[in-house]
Amino acid sequence: MTLTQLEIFSLVAELQGFTSAAHRLGISQSAVSHAIKALEQELGVELFRRHQTRVEPSDIGEQLLGRARAMLGLANTLQQEAADARGMKCGTLRIGSFGPTASNHLLPTLLNHFRRAYPGIEVHVDEGPDRQVIQWLDERRVDVGFVVLDQERFDTVAVFEDQLVVLIPVGHPLAARAALPLQALCDDPFILTEAGSSELVMRLFNTARLQPKVRYRCAQLLSTLEAVSRGDGLSIVAQASLPTLDDPRYVVRALSPPVPRRIGLAILDRRQSSPATLAFIALAQRLQHTETQR
């Protein structure tokens, strides 16, 4: 069993295809098939179920996938520690990001500073809903991920704080008020943005023993903004996720009482994290401290 075989196995499982994995790795499909067959023969199990247009891990394959990713992660850490001794001149950093707050507001500045400090580190960024970033962390698909705090099962550091705000169509009676309690949002249709802080929003209502009339579930913030602008309903979103330019079709109002939202970076285990991962977190903390001092 080799690390190359485990890398191919992990990638085929992630992409659900031998051809896709071959393209990503820059090798032939036959080489991918040969590596998987050799690994299956060595382990004595079938790692994948083959379908007409895709493959998926078998039950035992799914069980072994987590182990394989853990081994690859440890191997990457060893390589990173060796690179660190040479001045961190090479290596890979995989980042999980979600929504406009992390991907548009925080990540560009962080990556700009990180690439200048460590030009030899290859950075990969995967974007998805916040729940998916947590799944990627659990499955070791990413080294570090942006999360909405608190996340007790991970090692986390806070890097940013904003607040939740209410989006209201222009002309709506509630638009005349400067701040709104949750109770005031339960009479109109409610638009829930699945990507970002949907769990935090629903937890707020549940804690207050209130039930919003969820009529729309939008996968992207842009869809939520358009729905509110059409007058389809009200919504609650993170202030930092909103576009920098004001839109005349909707208004933004504070919640009463205010509801802060903290964003952090999460890793599975600091003791097993690569130097590149720890350097990225340390950089985020320094930038956050600098911003706080202003």
Ordered list of secondary-structure elements with their pairings:
Layout: H1 3-15, H2 18-25, H3 29-43, E1 48-50, E2 55-57, H4 59-85, E3 91-97, H5 99-117, E4 121-127, H6 130-138, E5 144-148, E6 155-169, E7 179-180, E8 189-193, H7 198-207, E9 213-218, H8 221-229, E10 234-238, E11 250-255, E12 260-267, H9 275-293
Parallel strand pairs: 3-4, 3-5, 7-11, 8-9, 8-10
Antiparallel strand pairs: 1-2, 5-12, 6-10, 6-11, 6-12
Helix pairs in contact: 1-2, 1-3, 1-4, 2-3
**Major sheet summary line:** 10 strands, mixed
Compute the number of helices.
9
Q: How many individual β-strands?
A: 12
Radius of gyration: 22 Å
By CATH, the topology of the domain at 164-256 is D-Maltodextrin-Binding Protein, domain 2
* Unreliable parts: none
Structural class of the helix and strand makeup?
alpha/beta
In which range does the helix fraction lie?
40-55%
- Cα end-to-end separation: 53 Å
**What string gives the helices and strands in order?**
HHHEEHEHEHEEEEHEHEEEH
The CATH class of the domain at 164-256 turns out to be Alpha Beta
CATH homologous superfamily grouping of the domain at 164-256 = Periplasmic binding protein-like II
Q: Please state roughly what percent of the residues sit in beta strands, choosing from under 5%, 5-15%, 15-25%, 25-35%, 35-45% or over 45%.
A: 15-25%
- What is the residue-mean pLDDT, rounded to a whole number? 86
